Amino acid sequence: MMKHNRILAAVGGFFAGALNGLLGAGGGMVVVPLLDKAGLPPKKSHATSVCVILPICIFSAVLYLTSGRVSLSDASPYLLWGTLGAAAGSWILPKMNSVWLKRIFGLLMIWAAYRMLVR
After folding, report:
1. Which residue has the higher pLDDT, 65 or 25?
2. What is the DSSP string of the chain?
3. Which terminus, N or C, of the chain has the lesser number of Cβ atoms within 10 Å?
4. Cα–Cα distance between 113 and 88 in angstroms, integer?
5. Which residues of 20-54 are buried (b: 16+ CB within 10 A; e: fewer)?
6. CA distance 32 to 26
7. pLDDT for residue 55 is more than 90
8. Residue 50: pLDDT above 70?
9. d(Cα 86, Cα 92) in Å, to the nearest integer?
10. 65 is in which domain, residue-wise?
11. What is the per-residue pLDDT for 84?
């Protein structure tokens, strides 16, 4: 890995972790463009982003649970359906056209930005 890519990975990884801790899995908005810039194809960028974000999410969840800021009973209504949605998404991703994947991701980023700005 070239020095530029290592620096980019370190900075991007830090911001992905910080966003995840602040916004809850928002780190994917940093990791996917970072992986695209590193030259990964779109589908691989999205799949790799999930693999990067998973340990960060687990770590953040443990910190929130152990500090008493959230309880498992708060999260439990979403776990089954979130797991089923994750399975559906990982099944759909390889079948999806890369152009549409980029468009959907971009629209979700715009929607998230809009909601954050107006609420």
Report:
1. 65
2. --HHHHHHHHHHHHHHHHHHHHHSSTTHHHHHHHHHHTT--HHHHHHHHHHHHHHHHHHHHHHHHHTTSS-HHHHHHHHHHHHHHHHHHHHHGGGS-HHHHHHHHHHHHHHHHHHHHH-
3. C
4. 25
5. bbeeeebbbbbbbebbbeeebebeebbbbbbebbe
6. 11
7. no
8. yes
9. 10
10. 3-118
11. 92
The total number of structural domains in the chain stands at 1
With cut-offs at 50, 70 and 90, classify the pLDDT of residue 1.
low
Of the candidates 6, 63, 56, the residue with the CA atom closest to the CA atom of residue 34: 6
Segment 69-88, tens digit of pLDDT: 888 898 888 888 988 988 99
Residue 12 tokens, joined: 């991007």
Amino acid letter at 72? Answer: L
For residue 71, give Cα distances in angstroms to 4, 68, 100, 110, 113.
41, 7, 37, 30, 28
For the stretch 7-43, pLDDT in tens is: 877 877 787 777 777 766 666 777 788 888 778 888 8
